[in-house]
Batch of 2 targets.
Target 1
Amino acid sequence: MTAHTKGSGLKWVGRAIRRLEDPALVTGQGRFTADLPAVHWVRIVRSPVAAGKIAKIGAPDGATVIAATDLKGVKKITPMLHKFNYKPVGQPVLADGVVRFVGEPVAAVVAASKEAAEDIAELVELTVDETAPEIDALAALRPDAAQIHTEAPGNVILEGKFKTPDFDAAWAGAHKFVSVEAGSHRQNATPMEARAGHAAYDASTGRVTLTCTTQMPHLMRTAIADVLGMPESDLRVVAPDVGGGFGQKMSLAAEYVVLVWLARKLKSSVAWTEDRRENLIAGFHARDQAITLEGAFDKDARLIALKTDIVANVGAYSCFPTTCGVEPLMAMAEMPGPYDFKHYETRARGVLTNTCTMAPYRGVSRPVITFTLERLMDKAAKAFGLDVVDIRRRNLIDKFPYTSAIGLVYDEATYKQTLEMAVKEIDLPAFRTRQKAARAKGRHLGIGFATFSERTGYGSPAFAARGMEITPGWETVILTVDPSGFVEARIGSSPHGQGLRTTLAQIIADEIGVTPDLIKVVHGDTDRAPYGWGTFASRSLVICGGATLIAAQKVRAKLIKIASHLLEAAPGDIVLENGEARVAGTDRSVSIAKMAREAYTQTHKFKGEIEPGITETGTYDPPGTFSNACHVAIVEVDIETGRTTVEKFLVAEDAGKIINPMIADGQVHGGIAQGIGNALLEEIVYDESGGILTANLADYMPPTAREIPPIELHHIETPSTESITKAKGLGEGGCIGAPAAVINAINDALSEYNVQIDEMPATPQRIRAALRTSPAVVPAKAGTQ
Amino acid sequence: MKPAAFVRHVPKTLDEALKILARVAPQDGRVLAGGQSLVPIMAFRLAKPAHLVDINEVEGLDKIAHDGKTLDIGARVRHAAFHKSVVDNPLGALLSEVARHVAHYPIRMRGTFCGSLAHADPASEWCLVAATLDATMVAKSMRGARAIAAKDFFAGIMATTLAEDELLAEVRLPLLARDARFGFNEFNRRAGDFAMSAALVTYTLQDGKIGGARVGVGGAEPCPRRIAEAEAALNGKAPSDAAFRAAAEAAAHAVEPLEDHQTTGEYRRDLVRAVVRRALEQSTQ
């Protein structure tokens, strides 16, 4: 066996060690779902129309084509909320007589190859008697709108309302009112790897192994077993290497249910890999929200009260497990953001339409609500004649713990400090000078700020507050030192790019005195990992990391006990480091490898005082902790074409204790890249009949490296009291703050034209259209590039 | 996203290629060069050719030659061939400038100049070059060879006057005057995307006045073309901001803009105005 390598004596936590998962990924050794061979290949026949009744599904002679009528006894996917007047609507695994969006799965073609399946799918004769669709959420609220589901009259699937007791009096007493109507067009998370599934039947046990691109393997197992009415123990779900998820891969894909059903039916292996077009039209969407926000300020520009009306277009069905409440309810609860005010009135509605089902996407609502709230703050600054920094200084929370107007408890954070840090590092006065000089030469530079709080690492009480029938939250970690002396952590989280194998190894290494490279983190296999909730909602490092620390502390205690027996020393005198247990101040030591071997093979030495083996379990279910940041964007707007170029992006961020600074920075960089894409480029466009006009990556535009500017990061570390590792989550912050900062900067660049850009993405077309309406500009004839 | 079944033919000589093309053309046979447009279209099943005549192993199609009057570009010359100047003439520099706007580096290593013309995407930079400089296309088939002027070559969005059995064997670009000036500008949302409008200009100065102006606009109409109104606004004038703006305005008015879900006609005219003026500005640098 390999000897334990000597550590440096430094703590592992806090160091930017290289990611343990990368050697395989960068040398082409990653193992992805679509790499698996299969006997049968599936092509999904999808609805070409947004609404209608299926008149005929005609299969070519000899072809295997599965439709809803074949799936006797298969239940609908019906997630549930026990609050907010939620109407449970079910999604048939394959459309059952009615189609409700373009791309909805209608039939599954089974053939011997991908190509053959696609050939047959083209020959399937699908006739749909079309009916008029509802595409836009506000239009779907009309009294005469088409009804998407009979269970949800008026197309409202849920409605949340909240009002603080003295709201009306506070509102009446305000000095000035500022309002904004803002919103986001629809976006797709666009993971590099689209969705794929592979189901294989094992004749000897009758079990099926579903390998798929999921962020939540255990919940997929529970959900599919429920829908198919099979014992959960007969299903194993494996998430191998997964090429990004961003929330899109936490919801149950109906296609996975079809695959498991087919594997059992055919007693064989069946695979499906969606193409980019399928992902863009049917792989879940997000962000489609219209928000009206009004702020009431006192004479000193302090926010007294906030009133908001949120309409979220949730698409045709409700995603499992979170339900479509995930966006409107997040918006309702977290709209108050980082600002200190007491009075809040809100209404949030989820509206069904004939569009692709919505699901969580990195940031979940907060990119949109942060954008809306930060637009309000900039408009308020203008109304009061204040600088945009000054109005935030007056309103940011600075006393902790802080209870928000809706009752969320914020732990200690650094809202004001990160703002001041960002202002200093960006050198605001110098920018204003440069901006003026550039303007004299016909160029339009702008700066935009966004301050926000990011709720992360929340456990089951926070989810239970939403009334979710499926209430995620806790995580369990099983930590074993095996007889070879190597360490294995089996976790219920399911990382897919976040670097969790590395960061958890760092946490364990510090507790038990071995180097991280000896620690294997096992995840993404329901046969190997304990039940858990997977990776989403900026939770894994906080919750799974906390469970890991608990398990590691128990292993540490056991190792010390073993060492005290073997070294005949008091437990208090044992130190664990550099792969060995040593009696402090002496040269007497025993390696962890030897202790591990003896814990299994020489148990008689412990005289029954120590249980055999070294396996400990940790479970953690925290209340949640708030990260915070201030984002600053500097942009240049070309007023002739409407193009925005982001020149520089700066972040002052506080995510508590940082376990691995390189991984933390990578998360922020990636989030900002997505946020800039959301701010400027990405938009799913439906035509009036419900067809998607942006079904490829030429028309749906994620940013390339060329569109992303240099990003400068600054950190403050405020250890969280609500997280036993002291770490806060930070997976979504980049994406949450960037759209607000970028679009505030655009508005700053165009301030002389008195136009308001309150939509995301702020495309060149929209910016030009706004400028054309401005009386202050004849932009076509002014300026240079 | 798998193409429908097809038969791939791999001729070694031009004669063999033309023979196969003549045979398979009536059965929806297509020429495959770099495949950077055709293959994605096949993957989307927007095209389902039954036969592909792959010219990647045909001898002699990768030549670039010039005789002092024209630059002759063979059917398999890749975009990347133009990264460096291919001829000691302002045309070499012009092609280098344009080449770096053609898609992304990996695509430029594979895609071909002539393939781009045969595909005739309205936004193609090379189609704009051909239209602006009045290139001559040499089409070959078993029936013989014929020369097609650029103005007679483009027939609409992704449509040309090539017959189905014809291979675009060569494109001839006229060399520019030794003292010719040129400028190019395009607008797209992301680096490497299709141009939403592009402009190429060339002219010479005689006694400080613009002469022989060519103003080509691509990406704005179904086919790239020279805009006579803009050229007229330049000829006889000294290069100046006012002259450039007048030409840009003339071009913006002259085009019949393509519209799509994100681009109104009004916006497309804005872009034409901007790219023409910027191309003209670049010509003075």
Note: The longest helix of chain A spans residues 540-567.
Target 2
Amino acid sequence: MVERKCLTPADFTRARQRLLRMHFEAGVGHLGGNLSALDAMLVLFHEHLGPADPFILSKGHSAGALYVALWSVGRLGEDDLVQFHKDDTLLAGHPPARGVADILFATGSLGHGLSLAAGTALGLRLLRRAGEVVCLTSDGEWQEGSTWEALIFACHHQLANLTILVDHNGLQGFGSTADVASMSPLWDKLQGFDLDVEVIDGHDPQALRAALAVRPNRPRAIMLRTVKGHGVSFLEGRMDSHYLPLSEAQYHQAVAELVAR
Amino acid sequence: MRKQLCDALVARAGKPDMVFLTGDLGFMALEPLQAAMGERFINAGVAEQNLVSVAAGMSRLGLEVWTYSIAPFLYARPFEQIRNDVCFHGLPVKLIGNGGGYGYGVMGSTHHAIEDYGVLLTLPGMHVIAPVFDEDVGSAVARAGEATGPCYLRLGRGEPPKGFLVPAYAPWRCLVEGEGAVVIAFGPLAGTYIETAKARGASLWAVAELPLDASPPPAALLAAIAQAKFICIAEEHVRQGGLASALMLHLALAGVAPRQISHLYARAHNFGRYGSQGYLRRQAGIDPASLAAALDQG
């Protein structure tokens, strides 16, 4: 196995800046959930996933973070990112069905990814093939019944080759998860199932590395306590970061904040 | 057709890449398949949305995935999973829906499948196979197995009259030769019309596959339609999105103009009373007597 270099703080900042620029130049929002999920995806692609490990982004509205993570490991090019959200692009606002080898499924409607991941994990087992399937869900999508169907299935079949990450940023489309349909704390509910559950700081690379390094003999869920809009003061924890694009002044302020961190 | 389905799948079960997922159905029917497939026979429980996405995940790895349930549980509940996870990726997942049309009869409207292929054929790459006779099921399974894209197998109950020699499977078959009207029926309903067509001197064609782009009507049928005074298209499916609308568009694009047509189709789920498949076909006006009445008028 190729020894891979640990990400440095500068690597995170560089990816974060590229994410902001991509969204600013495309004039689109959805930054909040991208910034909450980016750190985990960077650690996954740089340090954890091997060539046989499928990754499924169930929270498809964080496609921008996925594209930037793939760019940062050289699997998407600069010429790809500049096409984000444009006509005739491969890189739509949610992950595409075809054309990007590392993207197995078009997602965007919530509640599909965990089932796709469970099917992939059981399929690998039936094929006697190695590989860890990693699925990143949002916290809001645990309101989808199909996500629980998938969890029941994964636990029943003891899919030890399945890792579930939950981007627990606490905000959803039109309110906080606690205000809309509270399951707080979600990890308590998951602990009623036959899987390992760990709660960590989703912006702490060391915590991510340590949690991912554990290989239990049953499925596992790693709850990432994250902040929507992480790293940009005027986006952090704000509903409008789910939707609104940055103005030019906001973009420059955001970049300045990232550089100063 | 469940017995024939089970036999055909058992015969195929030696393929090491074949997986079968059932939505908790198949008791007293699919046990031989379960025994033949071992760990590759999976009861995914009462969770059809998950079942279809799991199938997509497995199919993406190259496994040959068959899914099975009562028809509406398999296409209506998980429609978005079929659309997004299977069809958007062109995956050759096979969806086997038991009880096509009013097959579940008195079990109630929740179990009827009378808008199934119309809805599914709106999806990219979807192929529909509806065996007409029990004898067709082996060929239908083979065709679904060979399909390179998503496929829906609509199972019913073959009902040919006693002594009828079932012709070899084909997407279009002329079951009764006749010089009068032309009757075109979809799936097992066609088998119920054989005696009526014979008695009225009509020709009867059975359709087993859609869409028509993939399985166009044969030239002999187009010629017969152009000549006939009266055409009757019958299906155990609602009017919208069914065989009749597809066929009429096909004919219009081909420049074939039938002189007079009638469409027998399943009425919506709004009967005040329930009954067997035969009862519901009578209520809907798609039973043999209704065909006879249409032919007498036409």
Note: The interface with chain B takes residues 97-98, 104-107, 109, 111-112, 115-124, 126-127, 129, 145-146, 149-150, 152-153, 156 of chain A (CB under 8 Å).
